[in-house]
Each structure stands twice: as C-alpha cells, then as structure tokens.
Amino acid sequence: MSEYTREELLELRAFYARQLLEDTVPFWFPRSFDREHGGFLLMRDEDGGLLDDDKAVWIQGRATWLLSTLFNSVERRELWLEGAKLGFDFLNQHGFDEDGRMFFHVARDGRPIRKRRYFFSETFYVIAAAAYARASGSEAAAERARAVFGKCIAYATGDERLPPKYTGTRPARGIGVPMIMINTAQQLRETIGDDRCDGWISRWIGEIETCFVKDDIACVMEQVAPDGSIIDHIDGRTLNPGHAIEGAWFILHEARYRNNDPALIRLGCRMLDYMWERGWDKEHGGILYFRDVYDRPVQEYWQDMKFWWPHNETIIATLLAYLMTGEEKYARWHRQVHDYAYSHFHDTRHGEWFGYLRRDGSIAQRAKGNLFKGPFHLPRQEWYCIQILDQYLRS
C-alpha cells in the first residue's frame, strides 16, 4: 500500500517530532554554544567532539534561524532563545566586512578568513534576524532583517555589483539566486512581514519557470545562458537533482500560501517529477548528487555520492506534494526516500545524520559538522514536516 492512512500520518508526525526534539537538536545544543566568543562551534565529529573551532558564517545564521524558529513555533524554551541571541549578536559583531558584505568563514573569535562571490551568508542573516526579531520582540533585529533583505535584492538584480563568477566569454545565470531569494522572502514575510515579498517571490518564480524548467526534455537546469538556453558544455549540462527538488517545495509552499494556487502546484510537481526521475538511484536507492542533462559523464568525482541534504529536501517535497495533491506516487516516493535516508544517514548511536555516503550507501566519512554541514537541512526537514502534517491533520 502506498497511500498514507490518517493513522500512518499521525505516526509519521510523531516520528519527526521525536527525531527533532530527542535526537537532532540535542546533538547540537547546548554543547555548540560558544559562551566565550559568541555564536556556535559546529564543526563536530560523529560523537559530537569538536573537530575545528572555525565558524562558517552562513551556518551561524542557519543555527540562529533554527533556534529562533523552534522558540517561535514549537516551545518557548529559554535555552533556545539564549542560543539564538548568541548567534544573532555574533553575526552582527563579526559577520560583516567594512564594505557591508558578509564573510563566509571566520575564526572562532570572529577574525575574518574568507569571503565568497555569492551572498548566501546575507540571505541566511535575513531569515535569522527575522526569526530572532519575532522570538525576542526586537524591533532593531526586524529593521536589520529588512535592510539586509534590501541589499540581497540589489545583489540579485545586479543593482549592487558582486565580483563576477563568470567571465564574459561564457556568461551564465544559476537557479540558486532565485531559489534562495524565494525562501528568504517567504521566511521574512511569515515571521515579521514585509510588503516587498509577494511581488518579488512572483518575479523569482517566473524566472525559474521561464529560464530553468525545460518541459520539452523534462528537466530543471542548474544553470543556463542569460537567454535561458542550455549551455552545451560540462558545467552547463550538470544537474543537481536535490537542489531543484528543494526549489520545487519552495514553490509548493508558495502555492499553499496562495490558497493552493493550481498553477504553482503544477509547476512545483513538474519540477519534482522531472528531477526524481533523473536523480533517484534505481540500483542502490537515494538521490544521486550530480547528473548530466544528456546522460553524459559528469566532471565532479562525487557525482554519484549521496549527500544528506538532497534527501532532506526530497522528504519535504514528496510529503508536501502528497498532502497537496493526494497522488499516490508522491506517497510512494516519500516512503522510499524517507526509509532510505533514515536507514542510511541516521546515526542511531550518537544522533543526527552522517553527511556523505558512497553510491552503495556505505559511509564515506563520519563527521557531522563542517563549513557546509550544520544544524539546518535535517532539523528544518523534521520541523517543516511536523508543520505541514499538523495543518493537514487539522483540516
């Protein structure tokens, strides 16, 4: 049987709540609170031991968002608010360079190490500041969230220039910018509100549908030429199925917000359908990391590995699609990805998930936290699934 009964959905809701509050969150907090320098120490071994005391700025923002969001929507635990303040204060004191842009990587005490050409640290600052503003009642935090959101819009539109990622020889545009800006605007709108969000979300969804969704070949591109055409070189042909599936659920989320807008439901489900077919490993299970749009060889050596976060995004997308459409295939897909992920990534001894598996599902390395993995994709997945199941079960 593939469709979910009400009893099974209640069991699923209880499972996600148990995992979030008894396994995932306790792995990170409060042990990761840096009460000496502020922020969080998140580069952790499998048992929670500290591997490195450097700090990825975007993950400081993600952790601040998570703790604030748990405080806002799960339980008003003072420990969570205390941690959120540690993160928010650290970001304000050490996250920004003199030019107003944010760092990517800093030392434990906040001394800068590296900046990136992209502005993802800024987007995660926005959702962190907005969620913290709601949790704390700080109008100053709300003002900071809205101000940095305005900077992100300027970066996204080119009104404020960032160092170029591509040369004029082969210009390209990536799906990452409209995707992250959709979710940033959604979080800002749903925590403290901002009149700019609805219009910009519509614009970014339109960009994704027009430029990146290729219905003729049943695909969502990761990057395209400025006119939306496919760049027939290795980078241009490379797909990231889990990333596109994350974009699919952002659009399905927007459809829910807009009273189950049928056009957005169709768009989100098409994106999920296309990239499930291209990304699901029919031999070993799990979501493959990279694929080529024409099934040619992919350059990156980790192309057939299984990373943790695409599975978090696919768990959300398939469950959301099922709850919104009732289509049996989405329940079947959700069972598949949920069962694969929790049987392969989850560490039943120490809690949380391993981040990186080989194609056959064996563990490639055992660290739980680094400059790219921290308390975000997994706890967001478990938290969000609880929210959508609660809404569905109440209806």
Summarize the structure.
This protein has 13 helices and 14 strands. It folds into two domains: 1-28 and 173-395, Glycosyltransferase, CATH 1.50.10.10; 31-165, Glycosyltransferase. Helices cover 55% and strands 8% of the residues.
What does this protein structure show overall?
By secondary structure, the chain is mostly helical. Helix content is 55%, strand content 8%. The chain is built from 13 helices and 14 strands. It has helices at residues 6-28, 57-73, 78-94, 120-136, 139-157, 176-191, 197-212, 234-237, 241-257, 262-279, 308-325, 328-344, 377-394, and strands spanning 43-44, 50-52, 55-56, 105-106, 112-114, 173-174, 213-214, 219-220, 223-224, 238-239, 291-292, 306-307, 356-357, 363-365. The strands form six sheets. The chain has a three-stranded antiparallel β-sheet. The longest helix is centred in the first third of the chain and has 23 residues, at 6-28. The relative contact order is 0.12. The model has no long low-confidence stretch (mean pLDDT 97).
